[in-house]
Design goal:
With about 600 residues, the protein is an alpha+beta fold. The protein is about 50% helix and about 20% strand. The radius of gyration is 59 Å and the shape is rod-shaped. The structure holds adenosine-5'-triphosphate and magnesium ion.
């Protein structure tokens, strides 16, 4: 606060009183000199005293009342004009001084709050202008009272524009107007608006309206705040379209696709093809365990496989009507709605497998034909034993000769064992020839190889082909279809027989070694089986084609060229491998490997 400078004023007043006193004294002294009387002198002195006292009083009034009052007035006027800096200076310590001080303090406080208010106003104004959304304030006629810079830049409004014209170039109020609602119920409203902007482009906004009230609580205007969400909407639309596209692709994949929970294998989603293959509606399948599509006793096995393997071949499933279906399953880990899942695709191979089974069956029939000679010879032996024994009994009976008990016992035993042998051969042939679904059970490789050889041994003996066994003693178990595995070994044995025969035919004079070597072994978690021969061997060109269907080097009527392609299919179905190592005129080795049972 400025302290007013009063010194010149006091000096002037004092000078004035002194001047009056001097003039009066001079007048008295002049009067004495010109002979004024005592009474007149006293009167003059009293007059002089009165003038001086009056002057002095005036000075005092001016100094202590008038002057502070005018200062006070000046200060109050200053406050009225928002000049809080100047203030009101109080130089007295009396009531007036206190009053002035109080007013001064009030002025100071008002000044401070005014400054604060101003600062806040500027802040709000900045906020209003800089906020990255459109703000307008409208009266009850939807006329724009004020708006921020964003709105001005975007819509270039003219003074007095109506909201609907400024925003959309309309000449009348919009049908749905959130501002109208706010004026109606005095509340804030939020809505999503879509319309064409002034440039004709489709625009989307989120609109929030708030009432603006006066001191009496009456709504005098409405504030509308708009956030342009056109870009967000466009992205949403793009996302929706792309999601739809991918969902359509997902649904139209001809193979069933399942999305499984990685932990409990619950079906979280599946495509339409799942219904056509499994028979279950999408809704029936959802939240069901994928394992329910397998036979109860195989669920645990498939549960483990699904969690560990990337591919499962020839999995047996059951459809809604309880029929078996065979599928190859591909599993890939993935993410679905931020959740770790397994993406499982199945391909229905039931028909393929059926056709394959028919082919295998046909091939088995052909093999049975091949075996006929050997089997006839095999059956001949027990039959002749029985014939001999029965003839012996008949003769003895006709001659009425007594047969010793021990002889009866001996011959009966012999006949019994030969009947057993014949039964075994016939049962084996019937089993082999029987049409059956593919099964998977623990089988001992050595036993199957032995069986295949037995049914066939007679033929080899007749052709003087020696068999060399190099089998490992341990059980060597694999998971397989017994009959199909036997079919594989028989195919290889027949081929080995033919190759040896061919070799012998080409070199009739040579003293060649006619031998088939059958080896079995285990290595890590696989079982290895080798069928080697000392046959004609193969050229590289032949070796490359041997697994192709209908490829044969045998004469018309001798070979169909299906043996090895069927063998290949069976081995594949058992997760096995097969390859041929061959040298022309030296021989061939077929090497097969299968996963050991328990290692799968
Ligand atoms: N052990 C082998 N030694 C030499 N060649 C072989 C041997 N095994 C197969 N081959 C060759 O592979 C071809 C295909 O064999 P595959 O068993 O598929 O048919 P195939 O024996 O000719 O007729 P089939 O349908 O009666 O078996 C044979 O024709 C033969 O040329
Ligand atoms: Mg063959």
């Amino acid at each position: 606060m400025q302290k007013p400078n009063t010194t010149p004023y006091y000096n002037l007043s004092l000078k004035l009183i002194v001047a009056i006193a001097v003039v009066t004294l001079l007048a008295i002294m002049g009067g004495t000199m010109i002979g004024i009387r005592y009474q007149e002198k006293a009167l003059l002195f009293s007059g002089l005293l009165f003038v001086c006292l009056t002057a002095f009083l005036c000075i005092l009034i001016i100094k202590w009342v008038n002057r502070p009052l005018s200062k006070l007035l000046e200060g109050i006027r200053g406050i009225g004009k928002e000049d809080y800096e100047k203030g009101v200076w109080a130089h007295q310590n009396d009531e007036m001084g206190h009053l002035v001080k109080a007013i001064d303090e009030i002025a100071e406080e008002i000044g401070e709050s005014r400054t604060k208010l101003k600062r806040q106003r500027i802040e709000y104004q900045n906020l209003f202008e800089e906020v990255p959304c459109i703000i307008t304030v409208q009266d009850r006629d939807y006329k724009l009272i004020s708006y921020n810079r964003e709105f001005a830049e975007k819509f270039d409004p003219k003074p007095g524009d109506y909201c609907y014209y400024a925003y959309k170039g309309r000449h009348e109020k919009c049908v749905v107007c959130p501002v109208e609602k706010t004026f109606e119920d005095g509340r804030s409203h939020t809505s999503e608006e879509t319309g064409f902007g002034k440039d004709g482009a489709l625009t989307h906004w989120i609109v929030r309206t708030t009432p603006v009230k006066n001191d009496k609580g009456e709504i005098i205007a409405a504030m509308e705040m708009n956030i342009d969400i056109t870009q967000v909407k466009q992205l949403e639309e793009e996302l929706r379209r792309s999601e739809k596209k991918y969902y359509e692709i997902f649904n139209n994949i001809p193979n069933p696709v399942f999305v499984l929970d990685v932990e409990d294998l619950t079906i979280l989603d599946c495509n339409e093809s799942a219904k056509s293959v499994c028979g279950f509606d999408r809704n029936e399948t959802l939240q069901k365990s994928f394992l329910e599509l397998f036979q109860r006793e195989e669920r645990e096995l498939y549960g483990t496989k699904l969690r560990t393997a990337a591919l499962i071949n020839n999995a047996k499933q059951i459809n809604k009507t309880g029929e078996n279906l065979y599928v190859n399953i591909r599993i890939s880990p993935s993410e679905y709605h931020d959740q770790k899942v397994l993406l499982v695709t199945t391909s229905d191979i039931t028909k393929l497998l059926e056709a394959e089974q028919q082919l295998i069956q046909a091939s088995k029939m052909a093999t049975l034909g091949e075996m006929a000679t050997g089997v006839a010879h095999e059956l001949n032996q027990p039959l002749s034993v029985i014939k001999t024994a029965s003839s012996f009994f008949m003769k003895k009976v006709m001659k009425k000769e007594k047969i010793e008990d021990n002889i009866i016992m001996e011959l009966s035993k012999e006949m019994d064992s030969h009947v057993d042998r014949a039964t075994k051969i016939i049962t084996h042939m019937r089993q082999f020839g029987r049409k059956s679904d593919m099964t998977s059970e623990r089988v001992r490789v050595n036993e199957v190889l032995q069986k295949a050889f037995e049914i066939f041994s007679q033929q080899l003996k007749l052709r003087e082909i020696e068999i060399e066994w190099q089998t490992e003693d341990s059980p060597l178990e694999i998971m397989a279809d017994n009959i199909q595995l036997e079919q594989v070994f028989i195919n290889l044995l027949i081929n080995a027989r033919d190759a040896i025969e061919e070799h012998a035919k080409v070199n009739p004079d040579s003293d060649m070694n006619k031998k088939i070597i059958l080896k079995t072994a285990s290595a890590e978690d696989r079982i290895i089986i080798e069928v080697c021969d000392t046959g004609i061997g193969m050229s590289e060109a032949v070796r490359e084609k041997i697994f192709e269907p209908f490829f044969t080097t045998k004469g018309v009527g001798k070979g169909t060229g299906l043996g090895l392609s069927i063998t290949y299919g069976i081995v594949q179905n058992h997760d096995g491998t097969i390859k041929a190592v061959s040298r022309e005129r030296e021989g061939t080795c077929f090497i097969l490997t299968f996963p050991a049972a328990g290692a799968q």
